[in-house]
From TrEMBL:
<keyword id="KW-0413">Isomerase</keyword>
<comment type="similarity">
    <text>Belongs to the UDP-galactopyranose/dTDP-fucopyranose mutase family.</text>
</comment>
<dbReference type="GO" id="GO:0050660">
    <property type="term" value="F:flavin adenine dinucleotide binding"/>
</dbReference>
<dbReference type="Pfam" id="PF03275">
    <property type="entry name" value="GLF"/>
</dbReference>
<dbReference type="InterPro" id="IPR015899">
    <property type="entry name" value="UDP-GalPyranose_mutase_C"/>
</dbReference>
<keyword id="KW-0285">Flavoprotein</keyword>
<dbReference type="GO" id="GO:0008767">
    <property type="term" value="F:UDP-galactopyranose mutase activity"/>
</dbReference>
<keyword id="KW-0274">FAD</keyword>
<dbReference type="InterPro" id="IPR004379">
    <property type="entry name" value="UDP-GALP_mutase"/>
</dbReference>
<dbReference type="Pfam" id="PF13450">
    <property type="entry name" value="NAD_binding_8"/>
</dbReference>
<feature type="domain" description="UDP-galactopyranose mutase C-terminal">
    <location>
        <begin position="147"/>
        <end position="347"/>
    </location>
</feature>
<protein>
    <submittedName>
        <fullName>UDP-galactopyranose mutase</fullName>
        <ecNumber>5.4.99.9</ecNumber>
    </submittedName>
</protein>
<dbReference type="GO" id="GO:0005829">
    <property type="term" value="C:cytosol"/>
</dbReference>
Length: 367
């Protein structure tokens, strides 16, 4: 055997594992089916702007260890995510905070806003929220639900908000202060120079083979290493034997514009159902860019079919049950380690993936 580990996937999880293994003298072969490293955090330079090719990626964490860890590979700027939401000809601040409440109802104090929300919750009659719709109304009332949540959510997930799990909406803060910061985390920023450099640094000195799909070369690849770290889709690994896990996919449409500032913000959400995209990203604003041109990307949600990129796991009860069956098999494997957003079928952000990867390193390499 030529390698200690075959790492399937050169995304954040696979690259951290390979970096830490290499540091400890283990030989790794990293493969990826794409023609570049970095997985979904890949950024690419266009018109001197770092374009987030797979959607906006804002780094945020409250975990000191994770922040220190990622800081070894890049300097982070002071970017704070403050998206705005467009609903018809109205514009509101996100996440839901005093600026949103003022824009919507003209209220100016937290107690007025709370009173308004309480009144709407009471009218809805919801006591114990059982799905995303009820959860959203219980948090912010019916007006905000109808203008800023329902349309966005239903196009993003391709199903009714009454069928979706409530944890999805709990990702967003609700605040009674005039604070437009989308995240509650202690640390936040964008790596100056983009994300790809982080992964390139991790993979320095490690053999990487791109355009290599594990499933097309499985028999041969399995003979090359003692163990496998797999970061692809767990259901595909087990040949879909318990059924296909559901994902949500996206189509990105990018454009270079001959103007320096298209929308004045990195992220603008379109919350109306009738607008077919969920958001427009203007990449230069992540790094306070002053380039003469600008690059924007519209994000169109899409039903996932085999062969599409599986961007979001759909963590409802049905899919989680199927996943548990795959996980049972995974825990019995002696030579395969599963990790990352696809192999663990979890709606992980980057900081979660780093935490999981470092835990995995601890278990596997620091014994
Ligand atoms: P991935 O990045 O998906 O890497 C897996 C790699 O494995 C891929 O490169 C894939 O090509 C490869 N692979 C899969 N199957 C095979 C195979 N059979 N053979 C070979 N290679 C294979 N997180 C944040 O913290 N902040 C954000 O703002 C944020 N925004 C996001 C926006 C979008 C649209 C999406 C989709 C995700 C966002 N995330 C965000 C989450 C973030 O992208 C993930 O947490 C992180 O990239 C997951 O890393 P990973 O290594 O688990 O998976
Ligand atoms: N959401 C919404 N309106 C918005 C933004 C988000 O209703 O303007 C809901 C939607 O259901 C979305 C979820 O909140 O899927 C989580 O949003 P987040 O921005 O965390 O999604 P991601 O960046 O992961 O796509």
């Amino acid at each position: 055997m030529k390698y200690d580990y075959l790492v399937v996937g050169a995304g954040l999880f696979g690259s951290i594992f390979a970096y830490e293994a290499n540091k400890r003298g283990k030989k790794c072969l990293v493969i990826d089916k794409r023609n570049h490293v970095a997985g979904n955090i890949y950024t690419n330079k266009v018109e001197d702007i770092h374009v987030h090719e797979y959607g906006a990626h804002i780094f945020h964490t409250s975990n000191e260890k994770v922040w220190q860890y990622i800081g070894q590979f890049a300097k982070f700027n002071r970017y704070t995510n403050s998206p705005v939401a467009v609903y018809k000809d109205e514009l509101y601040n996100l996440p839901f905070n005093m600026n949103t409440f003022h824009g919507l109802w003209g209220v100016t104090t937290p107690s007025q806003a709370k009173e308004m929300i309480q009144k709407q919750i009471k009218e809805s009659g919801i006591i114990e929220p059982k799905n995303l719709e009820e959860q959203a109304i219980s948090l912010v009332g019916k007006d905000i639900y109808e203008k800023l949540i329902k349309g966005y959510t239903e196009k993003q997930w391709g199903q009714s908000a009454t069928e979706l799990p409530s944890f999805i909406i709990k990702r967003l803060p609700v605040r009674f202060t005039y604070d437009n910061n989308y995240f509650n985390d202690f640390y936040q920023g964008i790596p100056i120079g983009g994300y790809t450099q982080i992964i390139e640094k991790m993979l320095e000195g490690i053999t990487v083979e791109l355009n290599t799909d594990y499933f097309s070369n499985k028999a041969k690849l399995n003979t090359l290493a003692e163990k496998i770290v797999f970061t692809g889709m767990i259901d595909e690994f087990y040949d879909y034997q318990f059924g296909t896990l559901e994902y949500r996919s996206l189509r990105f449409e990018s454009e270079t514009l001959e103007e320096d500032n298209f929308q004045g913000n990195a992220v603008v959400n379109y919350t109306e159902y009738e607008v077919p995209y969920t958001r427009i990203i203007e990449h230069k604003h992540f790094e306070f860019g002053m380039q003469p041109k600008t690059v924007i990307t519209r994000e169109y949600p899409k039903t996932w079919e085999k062969g599409d990129e599986p961007y979001y796991p759909v963590n409802n009860e049905k899919n989680n049950k199927v996943y548990e069956q795959y996980k049972q098999l995974a825990t019995q494997e002696e030579k395969v380690i599963f990790g990352g957003r696809l192999a663990e079928y979890k709606y992980y952000d980057m900081h979660n993936v780093i935490e999981q990867a470092l835990n995995c390193v601890e278990r596997e390499l620091n014994m």
